[in-house]
Amino acid sequence: MNYWPLLGIALVVIGFALRFNPLLVVVGAAVATGLLAGLDVIAVVEALGKAFNDNRYISVTWIILPVIGLLERYGLQQRARAVIEGVRGATMGRLLVIYLGFRQITAALGMKDIGGHPQAVRPLVAPMAEAAAEKSHGSLADDEREQVLAMAAATDNVGLFFGEDIFFAIASILLIQGVFESAGYPLTPLQLSVWAIPTAICAFIIHGWRITALDRRLGRRAGRALA
Fold this sequence. Notes:
elongated, 77% helix
C-alpha cells in the first residue's frame, strides 16, 4: 500500500498552522496528493476541474452572503436581541442548548446547511445569546462577551459535526464505509449511521454541560460584582 499520498493531510495541517491562504493550501495539498498517488499533472487538473464542476452549486454562497449583509445593515442583529430581551425566562444556556438540539436534529435529517456561522450564528444566534446573557447577568466584560460569542459558534460546530454522521447519505459516512471496506470490514451506510447516534447523544450531553457551566460561571461573576 502506498502511504505517500497521506502527506497531503500533513500539508493541510502545516499550511493552516502557518496561516497560509486556505484556498492555496487545499489546492496545493490536492495536487501533491495526486502526484504522490502516481497521477500525471493533466489527470490531477482534470480531477480538480471535475470536482469543481460537480459542486458548482457552491457559487450560491455568493448570492446568500450579500443578502445576509443587507439584513444586518438594516438591523437584523438588533431585532434578534430585542426578541430575546422580550422573552421571559430566556437564558443563554437554554437558548444555546435548544439551538444545539435543533442543529443536531436537522443535520441528522440531511439539512446540514439550514444553520451555519455566516447565515445563522453571526446574524441571529450570537446576538441572541449575548442579549440573553446580559438579561440574566447584567453587563458583560469584554472577555465574557467573547466567551459567549465563541460558545455560540462552538455550538453550531458541535451540532453539525456530530449530527450529520447520523444521515447515511453524507460524504463522511461514505468515506468511513470505504475505509472499513478496504480493511476487510464491509458495512452498510445505515449501520454506520446507527452507531453514530450514541456519539451524537454524548456530544449533546457534554456540550450542553459546557454551555450551562458557562452560564453558571457568568452568574457567579455577576453575583460577586454586586457583592
